[in-house]
Design brief:
Strand order of the largest sheet: 1-2
Largest sheet: 2 strands, antiparallel
Strand content: under 5%
Structural class: mainly alpha
Number of strands: 2
Number of helices: 11
Shape: elongated
């Protein structure tokens, strides 16, 4: 019977179990860089978990550069020595979930960089995407509706406009969890949503004018509540 994932913590434990199993397989079979792992189906049967669980574990190891998947070919051990691979997997297994405050701090640092790059590199398509998200946010706020998702899309559109795929990936990873937990952690007052319309527009205008310094300053102003939360200022 396959393990069922019921909660986020359960999912993390299942992932750790699979990652340990993959490491044991690599060591037992003396696999070297370029050697192929069994298929997702075979690993699923071996570890008695779902294929989706196996896929997520492989994607995590691929993210850290330990495995490499090739379409229609399978999953292979990356170009890394076995000692380094074992050490990195130990580190991955011991990683702790970041606190909400550390995620917020990371977001501040990251977005101050992405907004500068967006102002320098934005295309007409990027501007259209940012403006569309801005208008959607404005419409929801003015109608008294929750605009969390629209706020998220606005910031993700800016990250995409930065032209840096790594930063964009980080934003996609951390921003949704931060924004959806604002109310839970009492970070933002709902009354700030109206003010957010003006702040979003000023950020957009600075990007439109290709003024990276102003774009960064406007993003800092937009993040004033987050600064207060993180640094008590």
């Amino acid at each position: 019977m396959k393990l069922e994932v019921l909660t986020k913590n359960d999912n993390q434990e299942v992932q750790k179990y699979i990652i340990k199993g993959i490491r044991q397989y690599i060591n037992f079979k003396n696999l070297e860089p370029g050697d192929k792992l069994p298929s997702e189906r075979m690993l699923s049967e071996k570890f008695e978990v779902s294929r989706n669980n196996v896929r997520e574990a492989i994607q995590k190891l691929e993210f850290y550069g330990l495995l490499k998947s090739r379409p229609q070919s399978g999953t292979f051990v990356a170009n890394i020595g076995i000692i380094a691979l074992n050490g990195m997997i130990d580190d991955i297994l011991n990683l702790e979930d970041p606190s909400f405050k550390s995620l917020v701090e990371t977001r501040i640092l990251l977005e101050l960089k992405t907004v500068r790059l967006a102002a320098l590199r934005r295309t007409e398509e990027d501007l259209e995407r940012i403006q569309k998200a801005l208008e959607a946010y404005k419409e929801k706020v003015l109608n008294g509706k929750d605009a969390v998702q629209e706020d998220l899309l606005f910031h993700l559109a800016i990250a995409k406009a930065s032209g840096n795929s790594t930063m964009n990936t980080f934003m996609l990873t951390i921003t949704p969890e931060i924004i959806t937990n604002f109310e839970k952690h009492h970070v933002c007052d709902k009354g700030l949503a109206q003010e957010g319309i003006k702040e979003h527009y000023e950020i957009y205008k600075a990007i439109l004018d290709q003024n990276p310094k102003l774009a960064k300053e406007k993003m800092k102003i937009h993040f004033k509540t987050l600064y207060q939360y993180c640094y008590n200022v």
